[in-house]
TrEMBL record, chain A:
InterPro entries assigned to the protein according to its UniProt record, in alphabetical order: 3-oxoacid_CoA-transf_A, CoA_trans_fam_I, NagB/RpiA_transferase-like
A Pfam cross-reference name: CoA_trans
SMART domains: CoA_trans
Positions of transmembrane segments: none
PANTHER family membership: ACETATE COA-TRANSFERASE SUBUNIT ALPHA (PTHR13707:SF60), KETOACID-COENZYME A TRANSFERASE (PTHR13707)
GO molecular function, one term: CoA-transferase activity
Keyword Plastid: no
Entry-linked SUPFAM superfamilies: NagB/RpiA/CoA transferase-like
Protein name as catalogued: Acetate CoA/acetoacetate CoA-transferase alpha subunit
NCBIfam families given in the database record: pcaI_scoA_fam, PRK09920.1
UniProt keyword terms in alphabetical order: Transferase
Organism: Pelosinus propionicus DSM 13327
Superkingdom assignment: Bacteria
Keyword presence, Mitochondrion: no
Automatic annotation (TrEMBL), chain B:
UniProt family annotation: Belongs to the 3-oxoacid CoA-transferase subunit B family.
Gene Ontology MF: a single term: CoA-transferase activity
PANTHER family attached to this UniProt entry: KETOACID-COENZYME A TRANSFERASE, SUCCINYL-COA:3-KETOACID COENZYME A TRANSFERASE SUBUNIT B-RELATED
Gene3D superfamilies: Glutaconate Coenzyme A-transferase
Entries under Pfam families matching the protein: CoA_trans
Keyword field: Transferase
Keyword Transferase among record annotations: yes
Stored SMART domains: CoA_trans
UniProt-recorded name of the protein: Acetate CoA/acetoacetate CoA-transferase beta subunit
Length: 219, 224
């Protein structure tokens, strides 16, 4: 099956009010082309689940600057002043989640788990309103799974079946988000034929990936 | 001996806490200077929470796919390994990181740390800091002893939102090295440029002072 699509098909997949997971850490490993399409399309009232909101002109930043996002679930917003401004002005709802907890909540959402138990955030504002459980004498917070309508990811290379390989530190949240969304769209720099990637080098199995769009290296 | 900046003193003293073979996560800013002062024979592996071990300075050729936890260009030493955010935080939370070094806005005598937000002023988010303090075996707070306006940062009780409760192992400032113990904050060392009276005056928390206080160790590395 060839999962590679063009821009025309891509555009038909986005709708207002969608919950979108977006890979990347400070813009590295973020799907720059897909972000530019969302900005071009102007879909709005999005809920965004992402590591951080990068800077105004990297990663998911342009979507925030363009006011297309109404809710953000992220671990860090400090490098994009526009996110903080919108939060303080009450224009955008921001839920800050410890980065490791965010990763585990996404993984839980994609792994069929009802939540995870973590010591992270105990004794801080993060524990407010959450159930605490005692396991073997140690206290943990119950953190609930996260899922999305769409995951927009970035990989280095894909085969036509959607098997993915990432480079260096550009992997970050991409593999776990591939588990946790109803529709998984991946932007890649290069597409190869099925069989060209060795099974041992595949980092995300293609069965998780619905659509692949090839756009070369975007600097 | 020339005089040194607060940052140099702190980074140098923190470097002296590293043991050969430690896996270490250094926070952004002041803590990253620590690598510059590692004593001879002490080799550590740096963990970068965005997904790799073997963090190195960026080479002459910048790879846009390889950055440190601050999003700045980085390198990776031979023998390093890259992974995803799930693995990265499993390492951090699961006790596979020996030492984390973080900056601090406030620390208190119960080992609480506040370093991620100032209500009404600055809400950048906690990033990976809450996971790091929850999971690293040793949590070192590396910070200037007082705020820019002279206000104490080592307090009886933090009044800013906490990053973690009862998790600090050691506080290193340009004036002193202070250990968090069951009994309270133990003043272990002072800078050659400070007096015990000065440290006490600039600290709101009660300090345990017993016997002669040692001079800050390992500062000969500054001369390297």
């Amino acid at each position: 099956m060839n999962k590679v699509i063009g821009k025309d098909e891509l555009i038909s997949l986005f709708e207002d009010k969608a919950t979108i997971m977006m890979g990347g850490f400070m813009g590295v490993g973020a799907p720059k082309f897909l972000v530019s399409i969302l900005v071009e399309q102007g879909v709005k009232d999005l809920t965004l689940i992402t590591s951080d909101t990068a800077t105004p002109d990297t990663g998911v930043g342009p979507l925030i600057v363009n006011r297309q996002v109404k809710q953000i679930i992220a671990s860090h917003i400090g490098t994009n002043p526009e996110t903080g401004r919108q939060m303080i002005a009450g224009e955008t709802v921001v839920e800050l989640v410890p980065q490791g907890t965010l990763a585990e909540r996404i993984r839980a959402g994609g792994a069929g788990l009802g939540g995870i138990l973590t010591p992270t955030g105990l004794g801080t504002v993060v524990e407010e309103g959450k159930e605490k459980l005692l396991v073997n004498g140690k206290e943990y917070l119950l953190e609930l799974p996260l899922r999305a309508d769409i995951a927009l990811l970035k990989a280095f290379k894909a085969d036509k079946a959607g098997n993915l390989i990432y480079r260096q530190s550009a992997r970050n949240f991409n593999p776990i988000m591939a588990l946790a969304a109803d529709l998984v769209i991946v932007e890649v720099e290069e597409v190869v034929e099925v069989g060209e990637l060795k099974p041992d080098e595949v980092m995300t199995p293609g069965i998780l990936v619905d659509k692949v769009i090839c756009c070369g290296r975007i600097s | 001996m020339r005089t040194y900046s607060a940052k140099e003193l702190i980074a140098c003293r923190v470097a002296g806490e590293m043991r050969d073979g430690d896996v270490v996560n250094l926070g952004i800013g002041l803590p990253t200077l620590v690598s510059n002062y590692l004593p001879e024979g002490i080799n550590i592996t740096l963990q970068s929470e965005n997904g790799f071990v073997g963090l190195a300075p960026a080479g002459s050729e910048i790879d846009p796919d390889l950055v440190n936890a601050g999003g700045k260009p980085a390198g990776i030493f031979p023998g390093g390994a890259t992974f995803d955010s799930f693995m990265s935080f499993a390492l951090i939370r699961g006790g596979h990181v020996d030492v984390t070094v973080l900056g601090g806005l406030q620390v208190d005598q119960n080992g609480n740390l506040a370093n991620w937000m100032i209500p009404g002023k600055m809400v950048p988010g906690m990033g990976g800091a809450m996971d790091l303090v929850a999971g690293a075996k040793k949590v070192i707070v590396a910070m200037e002893h007082t705020a820019k306006d002279g206000a104490a940062k080592i307090l009886k009780s933090c009044n800013l939102p906490l990053t973690g409760k009862g998790i600090v192992t050691l506080i290193v400032t340009e004036l002193a090295v202070i250990r968090v113990t069951e009994e309270g904050l133990l003043l272990e060392e002072i800078s050659p440029y400070a007096t015990v009276e000065e440290v006490v005056a600039k600290t709101e928390a009660q300090l345990i002072i017993s016997g002669d206080i040692a001079t800050m160790k390992g500062l000969e590395q500054l001369e390297r």
